[in-house]
Every structure is written in structure tokens, then in C-alpha cells.
């Protein structure tokens, strides 16, 4: 009996770790649902409908004392060929820093939209630096994207953050995004690269069903004009 208890306790951390990517997928679905359920304060649906990919990072950690540091894990999904439906999710890690007199710490939910095919290709590289390898701008908030600035119109990535209930556009210059092969292995049983997950008919895990259903609910099929804009 004692040996069984010891074995159970030894396996518990491994089971908890294995469940983390699935739990994070559920958290990403909750974040996206809460943001989109308030149209006047959410991501404009026309932007979402014309986007090529989305990245959701629930609970991005920010700790700061003179030097700020950011770290978080999340997911990306891209439009399937033809603009209908969304791919199975690939995992990402975001890391970045800032310099300044900052004291305190916080958790931030982060959402990014990739606006064209060029941005998608850069995103699917093993490592991608926001601002340095692709233009990024704070995204507009509201029912439509008519209030976009020129910078937003030409940015490859638009980004938003939610901290303590406040949802607004944010610029993320210098932060790096990279795929997490270990978390992909946990979800899919093998270390698939994000490019393979997004561009092939990889079957999405059960834990991703809610998020994909929400993406389909809030983003109609891309029109011909939106599809051509990324070519």
C-alpha cells in the first residue's frame, strides 16, 4: 500500500505537467470568449474576419524591478486554405524585456492578429522578433476597424492586451515568439513544428474544440478582397 502511494505521488507532478497545455487551451478559449462577448470593447470583427492567424497568450507574466521581463505561453491558429475554418493550434512561447523604472508585477492576457501572408510566414519560423522582423502596432478596439491609423493599416501584426479587466491595443516591440515543441508533443504525441500543424490536416486535440468553435463563430469566411490583400 505504501509503495502504491509513493508511486502515485511520484507520478502526480508528471500528470499535472502533461495537463498544462490542455488547461492553457481552455484558458485561451475563455479569454477570447470574454473579449469578443463585448463588441463595443473587443476586437473589431472585420479585422478578425480578414486576419490570417491569431495568437492568444493567457496570463502573460510581467515582473519588474528596474528591468521588466515578460514570459508566457499560448497558442496560434491560422486560416485554412480557402479562408474557411481554422487550423489546429500550435504552441508558442513569448519572451521579451524592457528597460525602465518599473516596480511590481502583473498578469496580462494577450491577443495578436496576423494581417497578411508575409506576417504568417515570419510567425511560423522557429523564432520571430516582434518589430524587428515584422511590423507590429496596437490594435483598435470596437465594432469596426474604421478608426485604424496608417501604421495599423500597414502593420503585419496587431496586438491587444487585457489587464485587470481593461482591454486595449498594445505595442510589443522587441518581444520574441517561438514554437514550443515539447508542448506540441504533449498535445499531439510527437514534436510537430507549428508550420506542419498549421499547413496540414493535423487533427486538433479535444481540448482545442471550444477555442476553434469560438473562432469560427466570431470570424466569417474571408472575402475575396481580404484574401487578395495578403498575396
Short description:
The chain is α+β, with helices and mostly antiparallel strands. It has helices spanning 2-36, 45-50, 117-123, 150-154, 181-188, 194-199, 209-218, 224-229, and strands at 53-78, 90-114, 127-129, 136-138, 157-163, 166-169, 176-179. β4, α4 and β5 form a beta-alpha-beta unit.
What does this structure look like?
- The chain is α+β, with helices and mostly antiparallel strands and about 230 residues long.
- The protein has one domain.
- Helix content is about 35%, strand content about 30%.
- The chain contains eight helices and seven strands, in the order ααββαββαβββαααα.
- Strands 1, 2, 3, 4, 5, 6 and 7 form a seven-stranded mixed beta sheet that branches.
- The termini are far apart.
Measured on Cα atoms, how large is the radius of gyration?
18 Å
Specify the structural class: alpha+beta
Q: Please, what is the average pLDDT? A: 78
Coarse morphology:
globular
Oligomer: single chain
Separation, N- and C-terminal Cα atoms: 64 Å
Number of individual domains = 1
Largest sheet: 7 strands, mixed
As residue ranges, the low-confidence spans are 1-17, 64-68, 99-104, 222-231
> What is the percentage of strand-forming residues?
25-35%
Following the backbone from N to C, one meets helices and strands in this order, namely HHEEHEEHEEEHHHH
Helix count from the secondary structure assignment: 8
- Helical amount among residues, as a percent range? 25-40%
Amino acid at each position: 500500500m505504501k509503495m502504491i502511494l509513493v508511486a502515485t505521488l511520484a507520478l502526480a507532478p508528471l500528470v499535472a505537467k502533461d495537463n498544462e497545455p490542455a488547461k492553457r487551451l481552455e484558458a485561451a478559449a475563455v479569454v477570447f470568449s470574454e473579449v469578443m462577448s463585448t463588441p463595443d470593447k473587443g476586437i473589431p470583427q472585420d479585422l478578425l474576419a480578414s486576419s490570417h492567424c491569431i495568437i492568444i497568450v493567457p496570463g502573460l507574466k510581467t515582473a519588474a524591478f528596474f528591468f521588466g521581463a515578460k514570459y508566457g505561453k499560448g497558442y496560434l491558429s491560422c486560416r485554412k486554405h480557402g479562408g474557411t475554418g481554422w487550423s489546429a493550434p500550435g504552441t508558442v512561447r513569448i519572451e521579451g524585456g524592457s528597460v525602465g523604472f518599473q516596480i511590481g508585477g502583473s498578469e496580462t492576457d494577450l491577443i495578436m492578429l496576423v494581417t497578411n501572408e508575409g506576417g504568417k510566414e515570419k510567425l511560423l519560423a522557429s523564432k520571430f522578433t516582434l518589430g524587428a522582423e515584422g511590423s507590429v502596432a496596437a490594435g483598435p478596439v470596437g465594432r469596426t476597424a474604421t478608426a485604424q491609423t496608417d501604421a495599423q493599416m500597414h502593420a503585419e501584426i496587431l496586438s491587444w492586451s487585457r489587464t485587470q479587466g481593461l482591454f486595449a491595443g498594445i505595442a510589443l516591440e522587441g518581444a520574441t515568439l517561438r514554437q514550443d515543441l515539447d508542448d506540441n508533443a504533449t498535445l499531439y504525441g510527437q514534436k510537430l513544428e507549428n508550420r506542419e500543424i498549421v499547413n496540414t490536416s493535423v487533427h486538433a486535440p479535444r481540448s482545442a474544440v471550444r477555442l476553434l468553435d469560438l473562432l469560427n463563430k466570431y470570424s466569417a469566411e474571408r472575402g475575396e478582397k481580404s484574401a487578395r490583400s495578403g498575396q
